[in-house]
Amino acid sequence: MQSAPDASKRIPFHLLGILSPLRKAALLWIFWLLLFQMMRLVLIVCTGAHRGEADALLLARAALHGSRFDMAIAAWLVAPLALWWLWRPAPKRVEKRLVFAAFLVSSLLGIFALVAEVEFYKEFQMRLGPLAFEYFSTNEEHNAIVLGMVWHGYPVLRWTLFCLVVWAAFAFGSRRLFREAPGETVSLKTHGPATLILITCTVLAIRGGLGAAPLRWGDAFFSHNAYANQMAMNGLWAMIDTARHAAKDKGESSKWMKRMPVDEAVLTTREIVLLPGEKLVDADKFPLLRTSPPNEMLVRKPRNVVLVLMESFSARFNDAIGADFGATPNFAALARESILYDRAFSVSTHTAPGVFGTLCSFPILPDAGYVMKSPLGQQKFRSLPRIFSENGFETLFLYNGQFSWDNKEGFFRHEGIQRFIGRHDFKNPVFVDPDWGVSDQDVFDRAVSEFNDMSAHGKPFFSVILTLSNHAPFNLPQVDGLEPIRNGGAQNQRLNGVHYADWALGRFMDMAREQPWHDDTLFVFTGDHGFGIPPKLTELSLLHMHVPLMFHAPALFKRKGEVRHGVAGHLDILPTIIGLMGFDTPHQAFGRDLFRLPQDDKGHAFVKRSGEPLLGCIEDDSIFVGSVLAPPGFHRIDLGFPPSASDDLLSSERDAAKAFSRKLDAMVVTGLHTLESRLAAPK
User: Fold this and answer.
1) CB 289 within 8 Å of CB 279
2) Residue at a domain's end among 199, 227, 247
3) Dist CA 570 CA 359 (whole Å)
4) Residues 6+ apart with CB under 8 A from 58
5) Are residues 162 and 286 both part of a single domain?
6) Which of 134-143, 157-166, 637-646 has the lowest mean pLDDT?
7) How many domains does the chain have?
8) Would you tell me which of 34, 511, 516, 568 could form a disulfide with 344, CB atoms 3.0–4.6 Å apart?
9) Is the residue at 394 inside a domain?
10) Sequence-ordered list of residues with C-beta below 8 angstroms from that of 222, at least 6 positions apart, any chain
11) CA pair distance 529, 79, nearest whole angstrom
């Protein structure tokens, strides 16, 4: 009887030669993964009082989900040693001891952080991350107080002993990896390919796989149970992610902070934002936290609210605002029963800032353009989802694509959205773009079905619909009877994207009118941003942010069919909706209730161009373009057809430009102070 062939004989010899140098790295990587899962179990056992309804199965899912973070941080920790093992197989004794000592120190620090996280979670119900860094500063007295609090308030000695035991066991198990391999030499034929394999595996592990977006803290939010989501995180990963973002160049924001003292900025921002009748809450701490009286626009309060953010829905192509392409007949028809703002602006030029700015009424700031996927986003905001959920509403977010993009689900699940319906949640969709997902038609059809279901269960709902079909490469479904736009020249492709989006919107509203919830629902429509189209108005490319803003509830509004020409923006949507709902819930909007503005107030908007250090303050027909890295500018603008902007008037209208500059400085400094001091909402 023949014996089974040796495994090494079944694998080509040259492949064994390539993989052999990676053996130590693979073993150490596995050791770290086992350690992380063990410490996750320790954390779960020691924080059982916070577990709530998280059962064993859900916590097992959390551990499985958290393995992505474990693998990523393990890759960070192993990669330097792996390269050393590859290219220094026979180091001198001193070198070997120094490397082993560095390994012992780094592993001790990592294990200490994981052990300390147990008491940290008990205190704050969160993993290590931004808050842990905030407790220490450059002030020695402050740090001494913090260390004293830790020493006297927690079982430091017990956890230190536990830390040392775990570290000793880990070091003992890893020590053999640092022994010299007899006879091993460096060969480009084996070590070159092995290095490429190592780099590839390390990058994949750190990114969290082959997904479109790299691993972010929001990926830990996989369930409705907050405890299970926290258990999916890896504390070391959270700390390194925080440090990595903090290490990025913060020169721009720090320069803005020097332009005005914080106290002065807060007072100035209050003068800009607060309306009569609004009452500040805890004014000594929070810059804009306040309650607002209701406006008087409605015959009765809405029962439901649907906020529709339409991808790239530019005002420049919109019939209701003055375009003559015929691309948006349905939106124009809705406008005749609505209140439309024809001089509204998105907060920025990309979707993520648009969604964040609209739902949180928070400006887009220097060095903080993508708060949803940065550590600064790991704090509560007084967002629309949070406010509606606090007031007993079902909250729902519908979207064509993947919610992992820009960390939408991670951020807004944290903010109070209860259910998400995205790309992979549609059964038998009419059309699927291989990159962006299902069509707008599919999203709106699902919205009607979901609204019918929620209405039938008798609970009011707040829903966000974010569309996506009107996006390059404009891969659109064929629609019978929808004639293509041909009179736009070079813009025909964009116009047909807008035309399809308008058709889908019109179809949605036709279906909605047949439903029992329609007459009790407030619909708000706007674009997440526009298009970067000529002419370029000022350095900010203002047309890229010119969007329609429409409030539609024909059975509820006292007046309708109005086109208002005051300046408005994304930041104004939250306080306006709160005013229409009559909520007395505190909010911290950087915008204003558009329906409560004084008669002589022509509105304002604050914008920032993505990817460039340029911000803008718009009032009436003027715009100030500010930057700490480029000269400022001051222009008159005309948003007619065709649009235009004046030459720079900074030298001839210094006083007016100075007043605009002061407002912009105040808003930026107040926003940065609010974000960085974690004052977006009360704890």
Assistant:
1) no
2) 247
3) 8
4) 223, 225, 228
5) no
6) 134-143
7) 2
8) 568
9) yes
10) 61, 62, 65, 228, 229, 232
11) 41
The Cβ of residue 572 has, within 10 Å, a number of other Cβ atoms equal to: 28
Name the strand (E) or helix (H) holding 165: helix 156-174
CB atoms within 10 A of CB 271: 10
Q: Which residue type is seen at 614? A: L
Q: What does residue 519 show for φ and ψ, rounded to 5 degrees? A: -70, -10
* C-alpha to C-alpha distance for 476 and 478, rounded to whole angstroms: 7
Per-residue tokens: 353: 């800032």
The count of other CB atoms within 10 Å of the CB of residue 41 is 13
Q: Write down the residue that tokens 């203002």 correspond to.
A: 542
Q: Are 397 and 419 contacting, i.e. CB atoms less than 8 angstroms apart?
A: yes
| pLDDT for the residue 19 | 60
Taking the C-alpha atoms of residue 290 and residue 265, their distance in angstroms, rounded to an integer, is: 17
Tokens for 548?
Answer: 């329609």
Asked, for residue 602, whether it belongs to a domain, the answer is yes
For residues 40-66, give the mean pLDDT.
89
How far apart are the C-alpha atoms of 201 and 177, rounded to whole Å?
20
Answer whether residue 683 is part of any domain. no
Is the whole model's pTM more than 0.85, yes or no? no
Structural domain boundaries enclosing 33: 7-247
Give a yes or no: residue 77 inside a domain: yes
Backbone angles phi, psi at 461, to 5 degrees: -135, 150
pLDDT of 9 strictly over 70: no
Asked whether 323 and 533 are in contact (CB, 8 A), the reply is no
What kind and span of H or E run contains 343?
Answer: strand 339-345
Find, among 541, 582, 628, the residue nearest to 293 by Cα: 582
Per-residue model confidence (pLDDT) at position 143: 65
- Please name which of 313, 337, 132 lies closest in space to residue 240, comparing C-alpha atoms: 132
Say which amino acid occupies 350.
H
Query: What residues contact 26, with CB distance under 8 A and at least 6 apart?
Result: none
Residue 242 token pair: 């925080």
pLDDT-based confidence at residue 486 (cuts at 50, 70, 90): very high
pLDDT tens-digit readout, 371-402:
998 888 889 999 999 999 999 999 999 999 98
Query: Would you call 7 exposed, middle or buried from its count of C-beta atoms within 10 A (0-12, 13-18, 19+)?
Result: exposed
Nearest to 231 by CA among 108, 54, 85: 54
Residue type, 403: F
- SS3 category, 634: strand
- Average pLDDT for the chain: 89
Considering just the CA atoms, what is the radius of gyration of the chain in Å?
28
* Closest C-alpha to 413, from 385, 384, 382: 385
- Same domain flag for 516 and 599: yes
Distance of CA 281 to the CA centre of its chain: 27
Nearest CA to 517 among 577, 576, 456, 559? 456
C-alpha–C-alpha distance, residues 605 and 637, integer Å: 14
Query: Side chain identity at 610, as an amino acid letter?
Result: S
Q: In what order do the strands lie in the sheet with 562-569?
A: 419-421, 394-399, 461-466, 304-310, 521-527, 546-552, 339-345, 562-569
Is the bond preceding residue 363 a cis peptide, omega within 30 degrees? no
Same domain flag for 213 and 293? no
Q: Does one domain contain both 184 and 303? A: no
Span 488-494, average pLDDT: 88
Residue type, 251: G
Fill in the amino acid letter for 656: A
Of 170-174, 349-353, 511-515, highest mean pLDDT: 511-515
The amino acid present at 96, given as its one-letter code, is K
